[in-house]
UniProtKB/TrEMBL annotation:
This is TFIIS-type domain-containing protein. Residues 81-127 form the TFIIS-type domain. Its main location: nucleus. It is found in: Nucleus, Nucleolus. GO terms for molecular function: DNA-directed RNA polymerase activity; nucleic acid binding; zinc ion binding. GO terms for cellular component: nucleolus; RNA polymerase II, core complex. It comes from the Eukaryota. Keywords: Metal-binding, Nucleus, Zinc, Zinc-finger. GO terms for biological process: maintenance of transcriptional fidelity during transcription elongation by RNA polymerase II; transcription initiation at RNA polymerase II promoter; transcription-coupled nucleotide-excision repair. PROSITE patterns: ZF_TFIIS_2. The keyword Zinc applies. InterPro entries: Rpa12/Rpb9/Rpc10/TFS, Zn_ribbon_RPB9, Znf_TFIIS.
Amino acid sequence: MALRGIRFCKDCANILYAKEQYDNEGSNRNLIYSCRICEYTEKATKAEDYLVYHRQVRRLAEHVATDYKDYPLDPTLSRSINVSCPRCDHREAVLFHSEKEGGESGMRMTYVCTYRGEDGACGYSWQS
Ligand SMILES: [Zn+2]
Ligand SMILES: [Zn+2]
């Protein structure tokens, strides 16, 4: 499994993509982050990348309800295309009723983004 962190371009704030680059002698591999929108690149050490990866995993764990991550694979759940994922703008989500947290009475609707791409599933969940 590749260790990848998410960094943002200092020039245009788009996501930087990690890639490997050989130095001038062709002997050392360096990990660099490059922007696909502008020409911005920055170098990262393996150790740095490792740290970024772990920080990112922790951040995702806080924001993504891991319980809901596999819900988009459940064919029995309702789907809605009248939504827009707050994280990735994908326009389809599965939805289901869930009880309100904190002892409040009543039901609310939970949505889980169904986006799956080559960089993984979004799985973002939100309530309305
Ligand atoms: Zn850029
Ligand atoms: Zn999404």
